[in-house]
Specification:
It is a single chain. By secondary structure, this protein is mainly α. The protein has four domains: about 5-80; about 105-145, no CATH class; about 150-260, no CATH class; about 260-324, no CATH class. The chain is about 45% helix and about 10% strand. The chain has eleven helices and nine strands. It has helices spanning about 25-40, 55-80, 110-120, 155-165, 165-170, 180-195, 200-210, 215-225, 230-260, 295-305, 315-320; strands spanning about 5, 10-15, 105-110, 135, 140-145, 265, 275, 280-285, 290-295. The strands form four sheets. Strands 3-5-4 form a three-stranded antiparallel β-sheet. A two-stranded antiparallel ribbon has the order 1-2. It has a two-stranded antiparallel sheet with strand order 6-7. A hairpin with a 6-residue loop joins β1 and β2 (about 10-15). The longest helix has 28 residues, at about 230-260. The chain is extended and about 90 Å long.
Length: about 325
């Protein structure tokens, strides 16, 4: 991207992207930022114009600013020299955010102690055992997580955030198959199918993903299903009930994989071997293991057959249990 010169003669070999407007000034800013960071880290000597500070967090933010400056090189190039991409031929490129790890930096123990003592947030633990550390004595450092990037399928809040941004994620990951973002899309489609949502909820979820306003959703709901909801009830379904159902499906899938066959409980009615968990069996204090003899899916079908549950809730029992 930058101009290339012959190391011996100094002759220009390739001008690179120096003809792009503002690119050279951007390179100059990047070089100054790199030199400043190197001076703060003690890799280069300081001068009278160097602003010195002893704050790991400010240094951390400075490095992220440098990353953004480097990314702007590609933004400028895409504007003035756009590249034609073919979805079938273009090799997938790595996604910037690593969804398998968190954003963090290491801080000295004294600074960590000062920060947690001043914090009034209940979510900030003051117990050193809850943090990852490295070094010993005066060199002890504590890992401070700035932002959690790890996606938890069993957390309804994470699922709700994914639903709210799924259409944008699909647009960004359209040609990037080998990325964590694309994996999130595939996993969502898989868990959604395994959750066995009713036709009504699938209809609402599709409209939510397409960012249809709530007033329009209520109107289409009345036309298609003849059902009248208010906004509060619709919001509860889309922001709480559906994400919770998908999160529980993900947990079921994990328990089925992690629980050995010999540690599972056999359903008396259907004979399925399922983990001993409230997601699969109801609590029953009269039983030795504390769970009912029939799984929840069988109990639901029995209630439907007896007329104790509306017919529109009836679903295939086989699809209630995620396949492994």
């Amino acid at each position: 991207m930058r101009p290339k010169y012959n190391k011996k003669t100094g002759e220009l070999i390739d001008p690179g992207d120096s003809d792009i407007p503002f690119m050279e000034s951007l390179w100059d800013s990047i070089d100054k930022m790199e030199r400043w960071i190197a001076q703060l880290e003690g890799k280069l000597p300081t001068d009278e114009n160097t602003v010195i500070f002893d704050d790991d967090y400010r240094l951390y933010r400075l490095k992220h600013t440098l990353i953004d400056l480097r990314r702007h090189q590609y933004y400028l190039k895409d504007v003035y020299k756009p590249t034609l991409h073919f979805l079938a031929l273009d090799h997938p490129k790595a996604q910037f955010y690593d969804w398998s790890g968190d954003a963090f930096y290491w801080m000295p123990y004294d600074k960590w102690k000062e920060r947690v003592d001043k914090s009034l947030l209940h979510s900030v633990s003051k117990d050193l055992k809850d943090y990852e550390t490295r070094g010993e004595g005066d060199q002890l450092e504590v890992k401070w997580v700035v932002r959690e990037h790890t996606f938890d399928w069993e957390n309804p809040i994470h699922v709700r955030a994914l639903i709210n941004n799924l259409d944008l994620l699909k647009d960004q990951m359209q040609a990037k198959l080998d990325t964590y973002g694309r994996t999130l899309i595939w996993d969502f489609e898989r868990y959604r199918e395994m959750a066995n949502l009713s036709p009504l909820r699938n209809f609402l979820l599709d409209l939510k993903i397409d960012r249809v306003p709530y007033d329009d959703i209520l109107e289409q709901l009345q036309i298609k299903f003849g059902i009248v909801y208010n906004k509060n009830h619709l919001c509860t379904i889309l922001s709480k009930e559906i994400p919770k159902q998908i999160a529980e499906t993900a947990k079921k899938h994990r328990l089925l994989i992690d629980t050995p066959i010999e540690e599972r409980k056999i359903c008396f009615k259907c004979g399925a071997a399922l983990p001993r968990d409230t997601l699969f069996f109801s609590r029953n204090s009269s039983r030795k293991d504390g769970f009912s003899s029939n799984c929840k899916a069988c109990e639901k079908l029995m209630r439907i057959q007896k007329g104790g549950q509306p017919e529109y809730d009836k679903r295939s029992k086989d699809s209630e249990v995620p396949k492994v």
